[in-house]
Amino acid sequence: MFDVYSENASYHLGDVLPVLLLGVVGGILGSLYNFLLDKVLRAYNFIYEKGVTWKILLACAISIFTSCLLFGLPFLASCQPCPADALEECPTIGRSGNFKKYQCPPGHYNDLASLIFNTNDDAIKNLFSKNTDFEFHYFSVLVFFVTCFFLSIFSYGIVAPAGLFVPVIVTGASYGRFVGMLLGSNSNLNHGLFAVLGAASFLGGTMRMTVSTCVILLELTN
């Protein structure tokens, strides 16, 4: 489903420690995620005891806040020139694609908007993909991670259809991608592979899955 790495990769002993730390920190973040989610759901239950009106008001408030936040955050990111070797149209027209124009001039794209204004599947694909090490900047990936982390917590439990599985994968992938970007040339692993490992560690920390996580991530990627 997601093209991560379709060529032979070389692994070295020096990559073991960063991967182990990535997994440990990802598991801790997953536990923190569950802790905060439990606190938020308890607060929501207290609000819901006041009646249906409060349920609707809470859902409307969360929706308005989320919309304003997501539309405003890309203004913090700078416009990037379209890659000369891009395999698709840049900037992208429509909902799908890697390069969202947003407020940028012709021939440029907004990397944070490319993550936010996308389907969850395309956002995961962008984070997992190979040869995209320079498409996203540190600030944009970090902001996207923090946004996904907290918005998925606050939007879960309101009177609207919502799930945690895909948001957890997106959050973990952005976490892993950010770690891979921080390591840079100090690691031989592709940033997309770090995103896969981050998604697996965060998914394992939140859902308490072990073998199932490995199977799911293997089935999602090539």
How does the major sheet shape up?
Answer: 2 strands, antiparallel
Strand content: under 5%
Which structural class fits the helix and strand makeup? mainly alpha
In N-to-C order, the SSE pattern is HHEEHHHHHH
The CATH H-level superfamily is Clc chloride channel
Count of strand segments = 2
State the assembly state of the protein chains.
single chain
Helix share, percent: 55-70%
Give the overall form.
globular
**Count of DSSP-assigned helices:** 8
Q: How far apart are the termini?
A: 7 Å
Strand order of the largest sheet: 1-2
Which key phrases capture this entry?
222 residues; Clc chloride channel; 8 helices; 60% helix
Overall description:
The chain has a two-stranded antiparallel ribbon. The mean pLDDT is 82. The chain has one domain (13-77, 119-220): Clc chloride channel (Orthogonal Bundle). The chain has helices at residues 16-48, 52-72, 111-116, 120-128, 138-155, 165-183, 191-207, 211-220; strands at residues 79-81, 108-110. It is globular, with a radius of gyration of 18 Å. The protein is mainly α. It has eight helices and two strands, in the order ααββαααααα. It is a multi-pass membrane protein. Keywords: CBS domain, Membrane, Repeat, Transmembrane, Transmembrane helix.
